[in-house]
Predict the structure.
Amino acid sequence: MALMVSVSGIRGLVGQTLTPTVALEFTQAYGTLLGGGRLVLARDTRPSGPMFEAAAAAGLLATGCSVTQLGVAMTPTVGHAIRAGKYAGGVIITASHNPGEWNGLKFLDDLGVAPDPERARRIAEIRASGQFRCGQTGFGTLTQDDQAGKRHVAAVLAAGEVDLRAMRGRRVVLDSINGAGCTHTPELLHALGCEVVHINGEPTGVFAHRPEPTRENLGDLGTKVRETNAAIGFAQDPDADRLALVDENGTYIGEEYTLALAALFVLARRPGPVATNLSTSRLVDDLAARHGLKVHRTPVGEAHVARAMLANRCVIGGEGNGGVIDPRVCYVRDSLSSISFVIQLLAATGKTLSQLVAELPHYAMIKQKFELPRDQIEAAVKAVTAAFADRAPLTSDGVRVDFETGWVHLRASNTEPILRLIAEAPSEQDAGTLAATVRAAAGV
Ligand code: MG
């Protein structure tokens, strides 16, 4: 498996494709691109984190950047710290939801947003050239800040907008996967008035289950919710940007509902523009339509969503993988903001999570992938765009065709020669029919 280089940073197998040298080169490249300035550096809890943190600090200091180390911190905490502290950017040592033998680097710019594709390309280009600044304008300084997590929690609490008395003393279960969310997420939940049962809550970086917060990995959370008679279960990924939910019956409700429930809450109070990527459920469009609003659809990737939110002054945004962005806190997907929205929604409505979900529209989503050479992927996307021209397909990232009953999105993987197909409709059978229609046009 080669080193994965994408707009969201780099990821690799520790000691194989990702070594301290690679981390040093990429951070020297980022520091060279920025030409100095103050940066934030943080890591998730993986045991290889301190090693890469040291390499990354060296790379940034060499290029004249000054580094503020947050130690173990959530990705959204870094996003918040950059904006609050007017930093020039940040680097996070994390492989997000990849298993423990992986690690990686995420870069953030001065808005606390993942770099745009052009900047991401420049970082890789400078790294490949080996032409790094080193000491031309002196070296940066190294300082520590152990209060960033507390300030992030305070910002999420300050963004709260309903009376939480109804949730006081209610039990919630939190699975932090022994990751970066371990320390400050219970702090937030306590401040929201909840009693917290914390599982996988030691910041050891030893993941108790596969770290992606998907149905098959969260059986223990559902069991714990039932055992403890809790109102809800929350699951974070290792860098705590994504959040998945389990209802009061211990049932996993699907990551698409995290953004939908946040939008349900926010739009009822502060109706305004919404942004999400092309692969995210139509649930968000249905909720926006209740207020006569449209959803800005972007290419897949947090950076695209964040930029669309900035450009359109969106009140809420995110991705269907459980990533919600509250622009008042930071322009990074933030599990703390997501938790706060859901707790406020429960408090404001007096309903259970299963009731809230039952009241939302229901869709089935199917995902397929096809190994194809790049030129055939491009040809398939072109053919579908032409075949469904009367449906005004969206083409900023592959092609998405919307039908009356659902939609199909075809796009090339960023990292592998794979064509991905996602189809959504009220039933799995309908989604399969739509997928087959589009595949026929695509010739795959
Ligand atoms: Mg993540």
Summary: The mean pLDDT is 96. The chain has four domains: 4-146, 167-246, 256-358, 364-442. The two ends are 26 Å apart (CA to CA). Residues 96-97, 237, 239, 241-242 surround magnesium ion (CB under 6 Å).
